[in-house]
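Each field is set out as follows.
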Amino acid sequence: MQYEKFDKEQLIKILYEKDKYINHLKKKNKQLKYYATMDSMTSVANRARGIKLLNKKMVSKSRRVGRGFRTKRI
């Protein structure tokens, strides 16, 4: 888009609309992330999210005790 041809008010309006659209997309992405990781009926983490959380905890604990830990994807 060539912004040189717009005046100040038009540019402000364009920026406002872009910000509004970006905020809408952020909200939708947050919803998608929730639906991708949680069971909508029970609000409990789904299997993939549960495994990811478990691996994260195990790696964190292994670092605290000074041992290496490797996970295997299933």
Summary: The two ends are 46 Å apart (CA to CA). DSSP finds two helices and no strands in the chain. The chain has a mean pLDDT of 86.
